[in-house]
Structures are given as structure tokens and as C-alpha cells.
Specification:
Oligomer: single chain
Number of strands: 13
CATH topology: Spore Coat Polysaccharide Biosynthesis Protein SpsA, Chain A
Number of domains: 1
CATH architecture: Alpha-Beta Complex
Distance between the termini: 36 Å
Bound molecules: 1-O-phosphono-alpha-D-glucopyranose
Helix content: 25-40%
Strand content: 25-35%
Largest sheet: 9 strands, mixed
Number of helices: 10
């Protein structure tokens, strides 16, 4: 099956960016003039996906308004040069459909993904965490690369990159064996959510891009709260990995952790200097 839908878990509070995120969704923080979530939607469109499924929560209405027309504003600037600034978002909106569901309680990324089941149904799908901003300047984007991997292996795919060994406590960490003939794809046999460096099997960290097969929903339904008392997608994926149903892919390109101030500034400088 091809990948037609992309899920965006976007209910989190974004406490690291307070006070900016007090009344503004963290997904709406802009890198230059473009909100993080728009970068994510563009990456999905580039990968051939046009059905966007967004898991929102209280205080996130600005996301819905962003992917809609703003009648008064658009009428006001009609015919003047400012109108050009809306070209990209208008064309994006015309290509895609957007559906939303709300996560009532914050019980972790796994729970957010399970909340999205009603929008996804029984088909494989992509997941983008908008605060991980990925780019592969002028070449295939990360989701597009992952879909190629999915098409070949027909199982869940996680994007990974190597992180400094003392930073494993921030990520899901995988261990696996390189598949025959590739130096960038691992068959995963172990995954641990945010291990202390002393317990981390490797320094290969999952970043916010996944392709998931739909059996993940049933697994998530019976996944107990794990690290931090939250339902973790890493734990659910580990169940698939036990049956050799997860590959990890070292993508080509750059990823900025825009959930941290440092990563956010780095991304801003990168796009400013392009
Ligand atoms: C989540 C996942 C983690 C993954 C990370 C990537 O953590 O739980 O496994 O490595 O996203 O950004 P979060 O950053 O939401 O705490």
C-alpha cells in the first residue's frame, strides 16, 4: 500500500518556549516567516502525501486558521504586492485536505498517535513531529526518502541520526543490524525510550519522522505507560521490532531540534543564510 496520509501530533504544550507558547501553539512558531508546521506539511506534500491529519488540543485553533483562507486579510491585500507573500500557503491549501481531532488528555506521543486513528483508519501512514525540522536542500526530503524505504521493506520505518553519547536521554534509541547491501538501513532488534547514557545500547536516535503500519494502533491500545508515565510510541514499536517489523533509516539531510532554543536559532540562521 502507498502512503497517503500524514499524522501531525500537535497537542503538546511547548513549555520550553514560554511565554511565547502561552497563547500560541508551538507548531506555529515561525522559522523566518513560515510556521514550523507548514514546513512539515510541505515536506509531506513533497513526498506525495496530500491528506493531513492533525491531532490538536486546547489552544491550538491557530493551526486550523493557518490552513484556511483568512477572508478579511486576503480581501484587504488583494491586488497589491503583499499578496505574493501568501502564494505558497495558498497553493499548499489548494493541494491538501486537513482533518483534525483533539487529544483531550496529554498522555504521551503514543497516546497522541492512537488518538489520530480516527483520521487514519486501516492503512500505513507517516508521522511528522513538527518541532523536528528536516531539510535536504534541493534534494529529496526526509519523508520522501523514508517512503522509498517503506516501499522496499513494507514495515514500520523510523528516521535516525547519531547523537552525542551524553544526549541519549533525550531520544528513543535503537539497536539493530545493517540490512544486506546497505550502510544506512538497520533491522531494529531493540529500542529504548530516553535511556541514560550508561544504559544506551547505541547513540542512534529516533528523530521526529516515522512511517507506521496500522497494526500499531492495536499495539498502542495495550501499551502501558512507560518512561515519564506516558504511553510511548517507542515501546509500541518495540513490539513490532520483536517480529522484525521495524527498520531504522539514516536519512540524508539536516534536522534541527526546533523544540529547543538552540536548535530553533540554528534553523533560523540556516534558512536566513540560504
Ligand atoms: C519523542 C519520542 C522520542 C524521539 C523524539 C524525536 O520524544 O518519544 O523517542 O526520539 O520524539 O524528536 P519528545 O521529543 O516528544 O520528548
Amino acid at each position: 500500500m502507498t502512503i497517503n496520509k500524514c499524522l501531525f501530533p500537535a497537542a503538546g504544550y511547548g513549555t520550553r518556549f514560554l511565554p511565547a507558547t502561552k497563547a500560541t501553539p508551538k507548531e506555529m512558531l515561525p522559522i523566518l516567516t513560515k510556521p514550523l508546521i507548514q514546513h512539515g506539511v510541505e515536506e509531506a506534500v513533497e513526498a506525495g502525501i496530500t491528506t493531513m491529519a492533525i491531532v490538536t488540543g486546547r489552544g491550538k485553533r491557530a493551526i486550523e486558521d493557518h490552513f484556511d483562507i483568512s477572508y478579511e486579510l486576503e480581501n484587504q491585500i488583494k491586488g497589491n504586492s503583499k499578496e505574493l507573500l501568501l502564494d505558497e500557503i495558498r497553493s499548499l491549501i489548494s493541494k491538501c485536505t486537513f482533518s483534525y481531532t483533539r487529544q483531550i488528555e496529554m498522555k504521551g506521543l503514543g497516546h497522541a498517535i492512537l488518538t489520530g486513528e480516527t483520521l487514519i483508519g486501516d492503512e500505513p501512514f507517516a508521522v511528522v513531529l513538527a518541532d523536528d525540522l528536516c531539510t535536504n536542500h534541493n534534494a529529496d526530503g526526509v519523508l520522501k526518502q523514508m517512503i522509498e524505504v517503506y516501499n522496499k521493506y513494507q514495515c514500520s520505518v523510523v528516521a535516525i541520526e547519531e547523537v552525542p553519547e551524553d544526549k541519549t536521554y533525550k531520544y528513543g534509541i535503537i539497536d539493530g543490524d545493517l540490512v544486506h547491501g546497505r550502510d544506512d538501513i538497520y533491522r531494529v532488534h531493540n529500542m529504548i525510550e530516553k535511556p541514560d547514557p550508561k544504559n544506551a545500547p547505541t547513540n542512534m536516535a529516533i528523530i521526529g519522522r516515522y512511517i507506521l503500519t496500522p497494526d500499531i494502533f492495536n499495539i498502542l491500545r495495550s501499551t502501558q505507560a512507560g518512561k515519564g508515565g506516558e504511553i510511548q510510541i517507542t515501546d509500541a514499536l518495540m513490539q513490532q521490532a520483536k517480529n522484525d517489523r521495524v527498520v531504522a533509516f539514516k536519512f540524508k539531510g539536516k534536522r534541527f531540534d526546533c523544540g529547543s532554543i538552540d536548535g530553533f536559532v540554528e534553523a533560523t540562521n540556516y534558512f536566513y543564510n540560504l
